[in-house]
């Protein structure tokens, strides 16, 4: 069974940066679409960013409040998906997860442990 492992989180001050990684732990399958999601304390999981690998350079999507600050990318050779977090704000705090889903993410039930991102001064 495939399990995606997230890493790269940590504690940073507002305005800081982090780079999150998502890699398949058992075997590599190209699902074509990958997404990053987060769950903040007291809030439901929300979609942050998606990337499609079915086009040459990848088509991306971002929720409005992270546009211009976050960047999603993929290394096709290693099948690793990255999320670059810049100009972090306290409201970005939460556990970040990756999944081979975007539009249909609410039916996904194979979430990993995620990686904790804490933005605090």
Topology:
Elements (H helix, E strand, L loop, with lengths): L3 E4 L2 E3 L5 E7 L8 E7 L6 E7 L6 E4 L7 E6 L4 E6 L8 E6 L15 E5 L2
Parallel strand pairs: 2-10
Antiparallel strand pairs: 1-3, 3-8, 4-5, 4-9, 5-6, 7-8, 9-10
Notes on the structure:
By secondary structure, the protein is mainly β. Helix content is 0%, strand content 45%. The protein is built from no helices and ten strands. Strands 2-10-9-4-5-6 form a six-stranded mixed β-sheet, with no helix packed on it.
Concise summary:
The chain has strands at about 5, 10, 20-25, 35-40, 45-50, 60, 70-75, 80-85, 95-100, 115-120. It has a six-stranded mixed beta sheet, with no helix packed on it. A four-stranded antiparallel beta sheet has the order 1-3-8-7, with no helix packed on it.
Number of helices: 0
H/E element sequence: EEEEEEEEEE
Identify the strand order in the major beta sheet: 2-10-9-4-5-6
What amount of the residues lies in strands?
over 45%
Shape: globular
Major beta sheet summary: 6 strands, mixed
Q: What Rg, in angstroms, do the CA atoms define?
A: 13 Å
Structural class designation = mainly beta
Measured distance between first and last alpha carbons: 40 Å
Summarize model confidence as the mean pLDDT.
91
Number of strands: 10
Q: Which residues form runs of ≥5 with pLDDT under 50?
A: none
Helix amount: under 10%
